[in-house]
Structure prediction request, 248 residues.
Amino acid sequence: MDRVIRDGVDVLSVSLSGRLALYYRDTIVLGAFVAVEKGIFVSCSAGNSGSTKATLANVAPWIMTVSSETLDRDFSAYAVLGNKIRYNDVSLYSGRGMGKKSVGLVFNKDNNTFSNLCLPGSLKPASIRRKVVVYDRGTNVRVEKGRVVRDAGGVGMILANTADSGEESVADSHLLSAVAVGRKTGDLIRKYAQSNPNPTAKLVFGGTVLNVRLSPVVAPFSSRGSNMVTPQILKQYVIGPGVDILAA
Prediction:
């Protein structure tokens, strides 16, 4: 921050946040104070600490604190199970689809957290080859999970949320046919895969859907107020697009 101040920028946008601290112990807040003294406008992320109250960061009065909001569009994708139930959610996968034919659906029944998370080296190719697999979101990068599945011979992935990520779905540009689903849908798909003797699925991609309602709304992952350092100052100041976008 000292360097960009010396460079004479007009606007400083900081997409960083940490634990809330008193102003004199917060390096971002201190750097922003110096920048504002030099006439530089400073905008900072409100934080990504979820939907519980009093999780805001960057709450100093000289900072424009910005939360993330959703768009009025979705990047639709569907998981169609062998029982004819279709679950709607999101994906930015843009490659070749799976076609009209369903394939086998696999979910690890051994409660092995290592393989449930689809970590590198955790899969047995013989069990997932030419199948759609269900994996838990968390720990490693979402797109990396797809690479692990693809390299092991799988043709598709359903990335299902757990209690930690709730119902927030993120549309990623996956490396193979993949759909992200919320926790409730994920639990239903897991139950189907475990209880059916011959579970199947196919993934379908519907492209961009406009005029989604209700929107915009504050993103589930975006931190909430109140301002716990100086409660008399209302924060956050504004919300802006921050879900399924190229840049903020």
